[in-house]
Specification:
By secondary structure, the protein is of the alpha+beta class. It contains 18 helices and 21 strands.
Length: 535
Amino acid sequence: MKRILQYFIACVLITSLLGMPSLKAQNTKKIMKQTYKFQRLIALIDAFYVENKDIEKITEDGIRAMLSELDPHSVYISKDEVKEMNEPLVGEFSGIGIQFNILRDTLMVVSTVSGGPSEKVGLRAGDRITKIDGKNIAGIGFKNSDVRKGLRGDRGSKVDLEIKRPGVKSPMDFVIIRDKIPIYSIDAAYMVDKTIGYIRLSRFAAKTLEEFEAAVKKLKAQGMKDLIFDLTGNSGGYLGAAIGISDHFLNNDKLIVYTDGLPQMRSKSYAELNGLLEDGRLVLMVNENSASASEIVSGAVQDWDRGVIVGHRTFGKGLVQRQFPLTDSSMVRLTIAHYYTPSGRCIQKPYKKGLQDYYMDVYKRYTSGELVNKDSIKVSDSLKYKTRRLGRTVYGGGGIIPDVFVPIDTTKNYSYFNRLSAKNIIFPWVINYIDKNRKTLQKKYKTFESFHKNFVVTDKMFNDIVAKGEKAGVKKDKKSYPQMKGEIKNQVKAFIARSIWDMNETFMILNSRNKIFKEAVKVLKTNKYDKILKK
């Protein structure tokens, strides 16, 4: 009876929401009728069903099923998931400030956050955390979620860690006071040469705009005239951050994006600021995993002929979500509008065939040959649009098609590389190598420039990784592994650089073999840019 009363109260709360002005008045009676129907079903299951059932789980499963009928991006977020899902967008959490990896049931410090609590007390990359607040965590099957629960907490609270450090016989004890830890959006920002800057953005979050502005000012102070803006793999985030960054590229009063949903949700966003990057040449790097906010920026830049888009066709997400709280602190992330680029394109790809087909689209691009030949990209004349300044033809209905297409290398078979990664072979090998050679490396390579130019991952090192893979069940594929030798060596070198320097240096090495990056540089260093934009 108590539970039935609780559901009646919940029903009253739902009913109270029906008075919100955002709901369609003509649907109120229908919603009331269906609300009582759902409430009665839950009460009947609780009161009369032959077995005891978890009513909370049944309710959540029902919500998930309901949302799955709408679109791929309207989702339910349980109260336990809300905080963790929002952290990358909010841009900070309270903790000790480390990046970690669990290697063979050992919690290893990969790096410390600059200026964070762990760096201040002397933790460093390669340290093994064996106890948290006196509890042994080594060799007991700890998971990432367990580590986060142990290390995160309220700002100002204390955590005691026992550390084993390579080369130090006795365990070391650290007392760390938790503090606010920033989650950065920008992975790297460096000068490619004397005039070309490079910025890689991983997400659009609450503090992305100020991070971006700081990075641009830093690079301009170093002589940047032109920018390569890397949005590959960026799945999106806050609409406001995308608008803010686009504003820096476009002159005042230019339309950036407009959204269209219910009448009160229609809005247009225009450039307003005196942007930091309204002059100079701009190249955006994108791929099939660039989505949502990444596509808003790419669409605005392309539609105004402000820059050149290089890479692969983007994901194709043209829907805007908003989070609504439910009564138990859980949330629904609900699609409230479509967004459109300045030329009028909605780049949302079809999703009527269901979730599996929707997310298999990226895989189908490999099998259809689209990632090898731009002519394999399917477009519709009914979705043809013109750019605002030069009248170039662009298409809606499924992502942003790049101005300069970069085919994947079909001579390479990534299966061996992927199997090594899945078995976590490469990174642990690097950690062990760093443990043994850190002092030697730091003594021999005083600068990153020296390391980048002179350090070589030898065949002996590569063969050792191959042997580790075989022990873990990754058989040496005589056809594919020789093709991936250069890629594996390059990633090993990048991981070693990360352990000694920072993410800028990591991406300098990774980009040395990145075809999209190399094409972006080529666009700026030849007359290709001017030909595309007819300057």
